[in-house]
Amino acid sequence: MQEIDEDTIMEFPCQFPIKAMGKVEENFDILVVSIVRNHVSDISENAVKSRLSKEGKFVSITVTVEAESKQQLDNIYRELTAHEKVLWAL
Q: Given a cut of 70, is residue 7 above it in pLDDT?
């Protein structure tokens, strides 16, 4: 059964893309996935996508997860934005 969060007007569970951006560094994608994995147990192989910036200095990592609640998403964003290597999280 889906739960509707009145604060966000979202129905849970739902597929939700989480994007984190940082400088191009070795294993940045692994860092982002490991942070998301602290809050989501099942991340499929094809759920992770990366994209370089035009100049190649920055990279965005998008992880699409099965979100269970707004609280879960808030916790993911809190941990991502607290990490020094993550410049932005959307």
A: no
